[in-house]
Amino acid sequence: MKAIWKRELTSLFHNVIAWLFLGVTLFLFGLYFFVYNLSYGYPYIAYSLSAISFIFLITVPVLTMRVLAEERRARTDQLLLTSPVSVGKIVFGKFLALATIYTISVLVICIAPVVLLLFGEIPVLETYVAIFGFWLYGLACIAIGEFVSSLTESQVISAVITFALLFGGYMMQSITGLISSSGNLLTRILGCYDLLSPLEDLMSGSFSLTAVVYYLSLIGLCLFLTTQVIQKRRWTVSRRKISLSVFSVGTVAAGMAIVVGLNAGMAMLPETWTSFDVTDQKLYSITDDTREYLDSLDQDVTIYVLSAKDDADDILKKTLTNYEEGSDHITVTYIDPTVNPNFAAQYTDQSVSANSLFVVSGDRSTVISYDDIYEYGTDSSGYYSTVTGYDGEGQITSALQYVTREDMPVFYELTGHDETEISGDFLDVLTKANIELESLDLLQNDAVPADCAALIINGPQSDLSEDDYNKIAAYLEAGGSLFATLDYAAYDQLDRYQKLLADYGISSPGGIVADLDHSYYYQNPYYLLPYVASTDVTGDLTGYSSVFAPFMVGLQVSDDDTYTYTTILSTSDSAVAKTHYSQATSYEAEEGDVEGSFIGGLSLTTGQGGQIYVFGATLMFTDAANDIVSGRNAELFSGVVNGLLAEEDSAQTVVIPVKDYSVSTLTVSANAVLIYGLLWGMLIPIVLIITGIVIWARRRRL
């Protein structure tokens, strides 16, 4: 077999075809690499590979058309057929030679991610899984081409038939979709020859064993069929009385049955066994928090998807599969709106888009609009909308909790003192936790309502009245919970607000904290990146640079042992409370300033079991601050919300943050774009093609 491989490989490189194959493949890849990855800064090589997957419709027929057909036409195949080398080794040796040519181009492509790493972060594992899928897809196309080449002695016929077969496999998704959007027996049969879907799985951030087995089994089947075709001719040469069908019917049927059975068996396995999430953001996986919730789920829930299964959003479909496999109480059902156009009217009078979800348990139901599954933003030009986040898991987990519990906790947000409203990402946290947020004006109420699970006082600009203070104090003394923040611009004038906190041993020197340790701030010492302690509410946020707390008021606690305080955020020992910040001339300590380490956020449990959380920076609970640290402020807020809830409510509340949809774009200099673009798109392909032409021309003269 090694001799066959070397002979065939040498023959290919002595001909212009191999060089042309390499040159064209790398030219097209270089072109899209230049546009997508270098010019636009996309960190995903899969974009470029997906764009050139059509090239095999042209290059593979040309590469494989003569591998067996030419030898049959020239009758040189008789030497191989009568040689002591087995037919299987002959077929595999020739396939290895073709695969070697193709693999050389893939190895060159493997260098591209290394180049991109020079300009920023890329999803390395996801990238190389995509390249691996591209490699398998190309090998499968080559195996099909070799099989077709064994059927005829005409190179032209071989190339045309190979093109037709590859084109059919490339377009099979569209063909089956035209036949039936909901699927039927015919589309399932035709779908067995869908060459593109397994590639899309591997290129979308999922390492699919089903896709790998499909390509490997297809390669094996094609080589097996090629062997059977040649085997018939071999016996015709050596023993003309042997029937040509001896080696075909039974053996071929058995071989195809094995391949079909293998792939059918893979399809029956749970997706959690066969598909592995390799995205940096873990888009297809569900978190441990959700898995723990699913383990505790004891009510049956049906999730209806307003889409035919074949047309459903791929990421959402994989997410739903994880839910269905994560709990015996969850059933996912796909509803084709063309077959059942009135289905949505059972649950909502609003118009809903395709791929929207209806989560139903008993008499309770809720609708998740497809528009809420993804978050959108504008690109750098400001003109085009792009997907920035995926919230499938967060929305589905929230909906499951909503339909399986009867009473929803209520948080009240104090108003009447120019407080900052909870909004944006932080309001989304409360919504996903199925917490009702109500406004509370104590002028209109004799007391904090009895159903108040927690009271929010978010950066008041004017002071509490004596009556307000008494009502809130009574609520806390009765075991109520509080979330409070301090605004640097007003806190010094809020005597009763200060007194309310002082009742629980919390005080402040006022002003704004400037941290002089470079590890604790972003851009300037007032933009703090406080240390996040390991607590029940911080989760994985522990450490430096996790949350952003601009213009923070430093907190201090009393030394007595009345309460036990848990520090959540803290500054370094080099911090300074700039008590007269408006007249400050330096971030360094000046007259009247207070030096030392300060608390940025803390919690305590009152004697009656209430939970109090106090943070020194109102601005940290705004979208602007949250965006600086990619949503981690909202993640901290989610933990705090869970801590504010009573134990029975907390056990039923899981809030999953939005997952980033993609890695940040790369910043590639104009010179780098030009250099690497010319290298991949022009220089390497041209050198390869010229080399092939020169070698071919020299051999023509010999």
TrEMBL record:
The keyword Transmembrane applies. Coiled coil: none annotated. GO terms for molecular function: ABC-type transporter activity. Residues 425-522 form the ABC-type uncharacterised transport system domain. GO terms for cellular component: plasma membrane. It is found in: Cell membrane. Residues 43-225 form the ABC-2 type transporter transmembrane domain. Residues 281-366 form the DUF7088 domain. The chain crosses the membrane at residues 12-38, 44-69, 90-119, 125-144, 156-179, 212-230, 242-262, 673-697. Its main location: membrane. It comes from the Bacteria. Pfam families: ABC2_membrane_3, ABC_transp_aux, DUF7088. InterPro entries: ABC-2_transporter_component, ABC2_TM, ABC_transp_unknown, DUF7088. Keywords: Cell membrane, Membrane, Transmembrane, Transmembrane helix. It is a multi-pass membrane protein. This is Gldg family protein. It comes from Candidatus Pullilachnospira gallistercoris.
